[in-house]
Amino acid sequence: MSTDQTSREEQFAVATQWQLTWWRFRKHKLAVLSGLIVIAFYIIVLFADFFAYADPHATDSRRSHIPPQTIHFFDDGAFKPYVHGLTQKRDLRTFKLSYQIDPDRKVYLDVFAEGYRYNLFGLIPSSTHLLGLKNAQPEDGIFLLGTDLVGRDLWSRIMVATRISLTIGLAGVTVSLFLGVLLGGLSAVYGGVVDMMIQRLIEILRSMPTIPLWMGLAAALPNTWTVIQVYLAITIIISFLGWTDLARVVRGKFLALRNEDFIAAAELAGASQFRIIFHHMLPSFLSHIIAATSLALPAMIISETSLSFLGLGLRPPAISWGILLQDAQNIETLALAPWLLAAAVPVIIIILAFNFLGDGLRDAADPYG
Amino acid sequence: MTILDVKNLKKYFPIHKGLLRKLVGHVKAVDDVSFSVARGETLALVGESGCGKTTASRCIMRALQPSSGEINITIDGKTTDLAPLQKAELKPFRRHMQMVFQDPFSSLNPRMMVGDLIAEPLLINGMDNESERRARVRELLDLVSLPTAYMNRFPHAFSGGQRQRIGIARALALNPSLIVADEPVSALDVSVQAQIINLLLDLQDRLGLSYLFVAHDLSVVKHVSDRVAVMYLGQLVEIAPTEALFVTPRHPYTEALLSAVPKPDPRARQERIILSREVADAANPPSGCAFHPRCSFATDQCKSERPHLQDLGQGHQVRCHHARTLALQGVGPSV
Ligand SMILES: Nc1ncnc2c1ncn2[C@@H]1O[C@H](COP(=O)(O)OP(=O)(O)O)[C@@H](O)[C@H]1O
Ligand SMILES: [Mg+2]
Question: What interface predicted TM-score (ipTM) does this complex get?
């Protein structure tokens, strides 16, 4: 046996549960890639305003429906990224003022540039943005994904929407997790009538068609509520159904573990109920809970997006993916400004990423199985 | 001097059916079992899978609450019945009796290092000093012939036999006087079974342990036990000193079990008695003698009348109407 092999065996022998799980997860390349994508999205969540370059709420009718502008990276063979500037023109048929791309004027890009003011994490005042323009006219701008009808920059709006859509999913899953662990745990620990009632409740909730249920609940939200109130209410509505899966996972794992010999062995050694639950059982199903959570998240995100898209969830001026997609709802806009559909891309990417990540985690969750 | 005296132990599991969980009957997993284990003695408890051996062992260890009966344990000359005690009241007795489990893969928490696994009983029972615990763990690993360097490894690094040694070390941590071993070798490769058996015998000599040794066939217990209790469908059908049971079995079921034991002398090889039919359902036991549907000697009396455990003298008891008349075949004098 070579020394290399011996040391690898030695490493395996002293590997903890989390190391083994990581080694197994690592083999699942698609899941690792998905994990990185999810991390990238949550970095955007943290620094949404930094990645935006234009105030997502600022409207300007002259900027209506500007198509996406590419960034030109090389100027005279040197790396000097620029975009073209804008000039003001009057449309001779409608007599409307609008901005047009001026192919003769180059405006150079700047990184860590000054821009609109915002509060980082809602606390720290800042005005630094990843991208900006050097020596620009007031009308100039970057339009990576174009603008909407009222002249708001789509890229910047997607950045800020990502923050709302992904945190609402996270908040929803937190509430679900709490309900799922509590009710699933009660179901398993007490059994009997309690178990039966919780299981029937889960069956009833799961057999309900979700969209009409949500519509009913969401329609009950008063119009006068603030964005924050609606946000919280939507969180609760979408976690209302989400907890059932988690409760089942927790109950199943708990019951399976209770019959494990090592739990009996701990009891016979004189371990307290507290020690058995927190020292022996919880670490055994923590990884399963994490996997189930990452599989529950995409459903939450989709729920918020669909509710908002249908006009039942968040309402403008809040910005979420669903609200952005609402703008792409009618055929007329789509014909005039097809780039508005770009708001669907992050939804698709994150949902796929969460599903692959969740699958990878679930397969790796029990490294002893 | 007895260390364990079990009297009329019963464990019935309720059977519920339907949405309203109506009680429809009971599985009589252990049905009126009595036996005792003397200090330093090994009593083997033998029977087919499903006859209630694990349930009986777990009741004795009080991992299960018995339905009725007494579990008298004698420590320092003082006898206590464990059956009625609550969880908290049981704790002081736990250190005197420990269990070795059947499946060494599920009886060790895979998330704990070997050192922590063996130290857990010490920690729980008040050995707060870390270095003291580690010293004791080293001593125990030594006792079961495992390198002390294994302390920092996790169970997944070990084979079944090594894991069983770890399980034994853990069971011995608190210096118990009684070990209940529930089929300690039946999950292991045949090649390592003998090693574990020898370890258990060696530990018994060195530490003066008493064993309740559970097995599903008689071949294993021959070298281990002083006395054998044969169990069928939750009840004892025969109990005798090992030698007497092997040479002159008095119950047809014991004879059938013995016929499956490999013989050292090929000429003495007898036909293996294949028991007809499945073992009966513990939820719905046959009338009369529970063994009668599978017994080739069964008479009308066996179908209707339930036999009692009768004493044949010299510590030999048997539950059979025809025990005194049947000529059953044993395995000959042991060599
Ligand atoms: N927790 C339980 N609930 C219901 N029935 C049980 C339970 N545990 C064991 N039994 C039943 O009790 C009988 C004896 O089982 P067990 O003690 O495991 O037998 P053995 O160890 O001899 O194989 C079996 O019929 C089994 O199905
Ligand atoms: Mg068993």
Answer: 0.88
